[in-house]
Write a structure and sequence with these properties.
The structure holds 2 protein chains of 2 kinds. By secondary structure, chain A is an all-alpha fold. Helix content of chain A is about 55%, strand content about 0%. Chain A has helices at about 15-25, 30-40, 45-60. In chain A, helix 2 packs across helix 3 (about 45-60). The relative contact order of chain A is 0.15. The model of chain A has no long low-confidence stretch (mean pLDDT about 90). The mean pLDDT of chain B is about 90. In chain B, the strands form 3 sheets. A 6-stranded antiparallel β-sheet of chain B has the order 13-12-9-10-11-14. Chain B has a 5-stranded mixed β-sheet with strand order 4-1-2-3-15. By secondary structure, chain B is α+β, with helices and mostly antiparallel strands. Classes of the chains: A mainly alpha, B alpha+beta. The interface of A and B includes residues 2, 4, 5 and 9 of A.
Chain lengths: ~70, ~350
C-alpha cells in the first residue's frame, strides 16, 4: 500500500489487503468482520479483532477518517 | 534531407556524484532518434563521452573551467561554432550558468538558442540568498547563513546549534558536529568552490523533489514530484517514488512564480513529521533523474526543445502516476584509450572512428 501524498509504503497481510480492497469497493465498515469471517473461514471474534486493529492502524496513518487512537 | 537537429549538452559525468547531461541526452534521443548531440565537457574523463548507446555524444569539445570566466568561454564557443552548426544549448551545471548567460547574446546572434533564467531569478535562488527569498515570500526553509570567513561561519553555527550542514555555493554539503570539523570543511570547500560558504540547520526528515519546466511567464508546463527512497552518503538521490501531493505541487508553482523562473528546475524540500515542507534548494537545471519521468510520459528535455524551437503543436507532458519508481543502475562503458588520447591532446573528438568493437556494436 502506497500513501501517494507522503510516499510512505507498507506491506499488507492477506487479511489487511482483503479489508482494504473491501473498503475501496465501498463495503460498509460495519459488515467487514462478517466478510473476513466468511472469506478466511475464521471465528467471528477473531475477525472482529483483525478488522478493528487494521482500521485503527489506518486511522492512525490518516488513510481513513476517524479519531486517532 | 534536412540536417539533424544539433543540440549542445554539458554535465556529462555519471560517477558517484552524477551530472544530468547523459540523462538529458537519453530523454532527447527517445523522441528524436536522429538528433546530433555535441558534448561540451570540462574533463576528458567525463563518463558519458565514452557511451556508444542512447546517451552517446556525436562529437565533443573541451571547455575551459567556469572559473576562467565568460570571455574565455566565448572564445572557445566561437571556435566550436566554426565547426558545428549548433542550434540549441542545454547547460546542465550550476557553476557554468552565469558565464553562459553573459555570453548568450552573442551565441543567440550566431544562431544558438537556449532557455535561460534571468540574472535576478538565478541570484534569488542561489544558496546564499535562499533564506532571504524564503523570508520575503513566506516559504518555510531551514536556517541558513553565508559567510566569507571562517570566524563568522563559526559564529553562525553557534547560533544555529550543532550539528549543522556546511555547504559550498555550488556543490558539496557536509554534516559537522564540532567547530573543528567546521573549520576543516570550510577550508576544503572554499579552496575548491570559493566563498561564501554556507552553514545550515540540520533537520531530520524525508526529502521530496520536484523537477519541472517553466515557460517564460513563470508557469510550470510539466513536472514530476518524488520522494527520495535511496540516498548516497553525499545525499544524492539514487532512487525515488512518484508522489501526488497537491500541497507540494502548489508550493512548487508558487516558488517558480515568485522567482519568475523560466526553463528547467529542480526544487528540493525537506519534511519533518508534523511540520510543513521546507524549501531546501532550487537547482537551476534538470536533475540527474530527469530521464525517469521521460520514460513514463513526461519528457521535459524534449518539451524544452519544443519550446525553444517554437513547435506549433507541442506535446503535453503527462502527469506522472504515483507509485512509479526509479532506481539508478551503474554500468561499465567500453572505451578505447585512443578516444581519451585524442580528446586529451586535441581538446575535441568526433565520435565513431575510434570507438571500440564490442559485442553490442557488432
Amino acid at each position: 500500500m502506497l500513501n501517494t501524498i507522503s510516499g510512505d509504503f507498507f506491506r499488507l497481510t492477506p487479511t489487511a489487503g482483503f479489508i482494504l480492497r473491501a473498503l475501496i469497493d465501498g463495503k460498509d465498515p460495519a459488515g467487514l468482520a462478517d466478510l473476513v469471517e466468511r472469506h478466511f473461514d475464521i471465528d467471528h471474534s477473531r475477525a472482529i479483532r483483525d478488522v478493528e486493529l487494521f482500521l485503527s492502524e489506518l486511522r492512525s496513518l490518516g488513510v481513513i477518517a476517524g479519531p486517532r487512537p | 534531407m534536412a540536417a539533424p537537429l544539433t543540440v549542445a549538452v554539458t554535465g556529462l559525468h555519471s560517477g558517484d556524484n552524477p551530472q544530468p547531461g547523459a540523462a538529458v541526452i537519453r530523454s532527447l534521443r527517445r523522441r528524436i532518434p536522429d538528433i546530433r548531440i555535441v558534448g561540451l565537457s570540462y574533463d576528458p574523463l567525463e563518463s558519458a563521452l565514452y557511451s556508444h548507446g542512447i546517451d552517446r555524444v556525436d562529437s565533443v569539445y573541451l571547455l575551459p573551467f567556469p572559473i576562467k570566466g565568460p570571455e574565455v568561454l566565448l572564445d572557445r564557443m566561437r571556435y566550436i561554432l566554426k565547426k558545428e552548426q549548433l542550434q540549441i544549448l542545454i547547460p546542465c551545471l550550476d557553476s557554468e550558468l552565469s558565464n553562459f548567460m553573459t555570453i548568450y547574446p552573442e551565441l543567440e546572434r550566431r544562431g544558438v538558442a537556449a532557455m535561460l533564467p534571468t540574472r535576478s531569478a538565478l541570484d534569488m535562488r542561489a544558496k546564499e540568498n535562499l533564506a532571504e527569498f524564503c523570508r520575503r515570500n513566506s516559504f518555510g526553509g531551514p536556517k541558513t547563513f553565508a559567510a566569507h570567513d571562517v570566524s563568522k561561519l563559526l559564529q553562525y553555527a553557534g547560533e544555529i546549534g550543532y550539528p549543522v550542514y556546511v555547504k559550498g555555493k555550488y556543490y558539496e554539503a557536509w554534516l559537522v558536529d564540532t567547530p573543528a570539523d567546521l573549520v576543516e570543511k570550510f577550508d576544503s570547500i572554499s579552496r575548491i568552490w570559493g566563498t561564501p560558504v554556507l552553514v545550515q540547520e540540520a533537520l531530520v526528515g524525508e526529502e521530496f523533489d520536484v523537477l519541472g519546466l517553466a515557460d517564460e511567464g513563470g508557469e510550470i508546463v510539466g513536472h514530476c514530484a518524488i520522494r527520495k527512497l535511496l540516498r548516497t552518503r553525499a545525499g544524492k538521490g539514487f532512487g525515488g517514488v512518484v508522489i501526488n501531493d497537491p500541497a507540494v505541487t502548489r508550493l512548487a508553482r508558487q516558488i517558480i512564480k515568485a522567482l519568475g523562473w523560466s526553463g528547467p528546475f529542480e526544487i528540493e524540500f525537506l519534511k519533518s513529521a508534523g511540520r510543513p515542507h521546507l524549501l531546501f534548494e532550487i537547482n537551476p537545471r534538470f536533475p540527474t533523474w530527469v530521464d525517469f519521468p521521460s520514460q513514463i510520459g513526461c519528457n521535459l528535455p524534449f518539451r524544452l526543445v519544443e519550446m525553444i524551437v517554437g513547435a506549433h503543436n507541442p506535446t503535453t507532458p503527462s502527469n506522472c502516476d504515483a507509485g512509479q519508481m526509479f532506481i539508478r543502475h551503474s554500468i561499465d562503458l567500453v572505451g578505447d584509450i585512443a578516444e581519451l588520447a585524442k580528446l586529451s591532446s586535441d581538446g575535441e573528438y568526433a565520435a565513431g572512428s575510434l570507438a571500440p568493437k564490442t559485442e553490442a556494436s557488432t
